[in-house]
Design goal:
about 220 residues, alpha/beta, Rossmann fold, 2 domains, five-stranded parallel β-sheet, disordered N terminus
Length: about 220
């Protein structure tokens, strides 16, 4: 589906974009693919990398939001930055303008060198950022908003108001699901996740092999 989304496919390895709402379980699912030997490129980790101490990214964030977003050791106070960035749409867009180009450039560099029969690209804001045109297939990890709220309260210590603000800042669940090629429900127990990931893995291996064969035929035809 990569060519139908973007009209131009300039990457060689089949790429699955893994996304989902906040606290839906994306990291858990990504780790299961990683355990199967699939290269996983996580833009959440990249987002931390591009604002590490001494980086131009951190300098730009401090310039835009002030030194109040720094902890005493000079690292980014993510909770404080999140409070500021999610206060208004304009501030959130300002932060995205700083981070997204850096994250995308690093994601593409890592993908180009990662290899594998296919790759999992973990992109929480895949739909919001328009990066679904940079993958061949979209896998949405889905759960109810009630489960998201509960996980945010327990996992991140968010207040009820904070959880609502985080949910409101993302595209709504229905819109996200309309962009999905595959949906993995993660509403309750994790017992079913390994089996379901195994099924998806087998399908992605088949899809990647089919695409690779098609590319090879196209290359030979071009030579002829």
């Amino acid at each position: 589906m990569g060519t139908s989304r973007s009209g131009l496919r300039d990457w060689s390895v089949y790429r699955v974009g893994l996304t989902g709402g906040i606290a839906s379980g994306k990291s858990t699912v990504a780790s299961l693919f990683g355990a199967l030997g699939v290269p996983v490129i996580d833009t959440d980790l990249i987002a931390r990398e591009v604002v590490a101490p001494g980086t131009p990214g951190l300098e730009a964030v401090v310039s835009a939001f002030g030194k109040d977003v720094l902890l005493p050791d000079g690292t980014l106070d993510r909770r404080r930055l999140r409070e500021l960035a999610f206060a208004t749409a304009g501030q959130r867009e300002q932060l995205e303008a700083i981070l997204h180009p850096r994250i995308r450039a690093r994601m593409e560099a890592l993908s180009a060198s990662a290899g594998g029969p296919y790759q999992i690209l973990v992109i929480p804001l895949l739909v919001e950022s328009g990066l679904d045109d940079r993958v061949d297939r979209v896998l949405v990890v889905d759960c109810s908003e009630a489960v998201q709220r509960a996980r945010l309260r327990v996992r991140d210590g968010e207040s009820a108001a904070g959880a609502e603000r985080l949910l409101a800042a993302q595209v709504d669940r229905a819109t996200r699901l309309t962009r999905a090629d595959d949906v993995l429900v993660n509403d309750g127990t994790r017992d079913e996740l390994p089996r379901r990931v195994g099924e998806l893995h087998a399908n992605y291996l088949s899809l990647a092999a089919g695409q690779a064969a098609g590319q090879k035929r196209g290359s030979v035809k071009g030579i002829e």
